[in-house]
Amino acid sequence: MKLILVATLAYCALFSASLSAQGRTVVVELFTSQGCSSCPPADAILHKLAEHKGVIALALHVDYWDYIGWKDEYALASHTKRQRGYAHVAGREVVYTPQMIINGVDDVVGAHPMEVAEIIDREKSSPAVVALSAERNGSRVTIRAAPVSRPLDGPVMVQLVRYSPLKTANITRGENAGHKLDYANVVEDWTNLGEWDGAEPYEVQTDLEGDLPVVVLLQSTGPGEIVAAAVAK
């Protein structure tokens, strides 16, 4: 695995240089597992993505590899359910790791950095359809949204996501036994705050506990396209 990671980091250097700096915010969801030997290269790519302005990188650890010898301590059944939801919408019968879903629509193997970069650049160049902001003041987050030029085609879910920027795992069993691995932007909680019709300006406030970073996503039901995203500041 060491040789794979070295090669991946070399690709990541090219990959980082290829990403454009401007444009629409892009959300990358990596479905990964500590029990998957193919996942560390994708986890390394997510580290690089997390450093890029205009990209919201989220690691969703799934639980369906736990049976092969190592229980992923960051896995949530809700992450597996979300991944299966994407598969159902796309007409796929199976799920896999490492998989990246980009802006809720594009499906790509998470260990293919140049393909990931191409999709991100394409998404960043697409015009914004919603003006979205998320302001954090102490324990309160205020979310505001408005259509840019015309109402949306349908309602969207207003989602609030909280994550740990960095976690480290010492894996003693399973396919990655003997490795100490770092994980970026590990999702801890994913909450649906309700729906917005996408027509009139929208505002909602919610209270939080703790100091974990917060992002807000506006996503079509399905789960479908993520039409806008913002980091709460």
Gyration radius from CA atoms, angstroms = 17 Å
Helix content: 10-25%
- What ranges have pLDDT less than 50 throughout 5 or more consecutive residues? 2-14
Give helix and strand order, one letter per element, not per position: HEHEHEEHEEEEEEE
Describe the model:
The model is unreliable at 2-14 (pLDDT under 50). The strands form three sheets. Strands 2-1-3-4 form a four-stranded mixed β-sheet, sandwiched between helices. With 233 residues, the protein is α+β, with helices and mostly antiparallel strands. It has four helices and eleven strands, in the order αβαβαββαβββββββ. It is globular and about 55 Å long. It has helices at 2-18, 39-50, 77-90, 113-124, and strands spanning 26-32, 55-61, 99-102, 106-109, 130-137, 140-147, 156-171, 179-196, 202-207, 214-220, 226-231.
